[in-house]
Design a protein that fits this description.
By secondary structure, the chain is α/β, with parallel strands linked by helices. It folds into 2 domains: 124 residues, HUPs (Rossmann fold), CATH 3.40.50; 115 residues, Rossmann fold, CATH 3.40.50.620. It is built from 9 helices and 10 strands. It has a 10-stranded mixed β-sheet, sandwiched between helices. The longest helix is centred in the middle third of the chain and has 18 residues. It starts with a strand and ends with a strand.
Length: 261
C-alpha cells in the first residue's frame, strides 16, 4: 500500500496541504499519516482531523486509512521530523511552509525545504500564499489540468515526467496537459512513453533567456502543479539562495512536487 505522510507544525496555513493529502489518500487507497514533532501530550487533540474533511466532502468517516503520530527523538523539530520520516518510509511527503522571505532561506530556510533536501521520497510542497492546487476544496475531486515540468537536462526531465504520470494516476486525473519547459540552451528532451492510467498530453515549450526561475514562475501562473527534479543544493549560490526548486517554490502560487535525483 502507498503511504503518504503529511507533516504538520499545527500552525494555521496547512489546511490546503492537508486537504490534498486526504484527497490523494481517498483517490488512491493510500495510507495517510499526519506527523508532528516533539509535541506535548495534549497535542494529539490538535492533530488534523481527516474525518472532518471527509464529512465536509460528503464521505463517510473512516473512508481512508488514517492515523496521527507525534514523534519525539531530538531537540530540533526538523531533525525529529526527518527521523520520523525515516521510520515511516513514505512514498510521498506533503509539507507546507509559512514564510517566503529570502532572509529566512539564508538563515535556516523553512521546514518544508529542509524535508525536501533530506528525504529521497518525492515531496509535495505548498507555498505560503497558495492560490490554487489540483484538488477542489468543495468535494476533494481532482482539478489537475495543467502541469509544468522544467526540463533542465534529459535525466531530470525523464525523472520529473515519470512522477507527473505517477501523481496524476494517484489523483485519478483524466486529461492533463503537461508542458515541458525548456529555458535557454538545453539538451534533447525525452519523449513520454504512452502507458495506461492518466491521459497526459505532453507539449514542449522552448523559451530563450537565462532567468530560469523567472520563466518557470511566469509560465506556471495557470498551472495546477509544478514538478521539478532536483539534485539539491550543489553550489555556494544554492546554499545561500536555495536550489532552483527552492526559489521557484517561494514564488509560485501552486504546489511544487520536488523529485530527488
Amino acid at each position: 500500500m502507498t503511504t503518504i505522510v503529511h507533516t504538520t507544525d499545527l500552525l494555521h496555513g496547512d489546511d490546503v496541504a492537508f486537504e490534498h493529502s486526504v484527497a490523494l489518500a481517498m483517490s488512491s487507497g493510500a495510507s495517510l499519516v499526519a506527523l508532528h514533532a516533539n509535541g506535548a501530550a495534549q497535542v494529539a487533540d490538535r492533530m488534523p482531523d481527516a474525518d472532518a474533511v471527509l464529512r465536509r466532502w460528503g464521505r463517510e468517516p473512516g473512508t481512508i486509512h488514517y492515523r496521527t503520530e507525534v514523534h519525539t527523538c531530538c531537540e530540533d523539530a526538523i531533525d525529529t521530523v526527518l527521523d520520523g520520516l525515516r521510520t515511516l518510509a513514505p512514498d510521498l511527503v506533503v509539507a507546507a511552509t509559512h514564510d517566503r522571505g529570502i532572509l529566512a532561506r539564508i538563515f535556516g530556510g523553512s521546514g518544508a525545504e529542509a524535508i525536501a533536501h533530506n528525504v529521497t521520497a518525492p515531496v509535495l510542497l505548498f507555498p505560503a500564499e497558495i492560490d490554487r492546487g489540483f484538488v477542489t476544496s468543495a468535494d476533494g475531486g481532482s482539478t489537475m489540468r495543467r502541469v509544468v515540468v522544467p526540463a533542465g537536462d534529459p535525466e531530470s526531465a525523464r525523472a520529473a515526467l515519470e512522477r507527473v504520470r505517477w501523481i496524476a494516476d494517484l489523483t485519478k486525473a483524466e486529461e492533463v496537459e503537461v508542458v515541458l519547459l525548456c529555458v535557454g540552451d538545453h539538451d534533447p528532451i525525452p519523449e513520454l512513453e504512452p502507458r495506461d492510467g492518466a491521459r497526459l498530453h505532453v507539449t514542449k515549450q522552448i523559451v530563450p533567456g537565462h532567468d530560469v526561475c523567472g520563466e518557470i514562475v511566469e509560465h506556471s501562473r495557470d498551472a495546477s502543479l509544478v514538478v521539478m527534479a532536483t539534485r539539491g543544493q550543489d553550489s555556494v549560490s544554492d546554499m545561500l539562495m536555495g536550489s532552483k526548486t527552492d526559489r521557484v517554490f517561494h514564488r509560485v502560487g501552486c504546489p511544487v512536487l520536488s523529485v530527488r535525483l
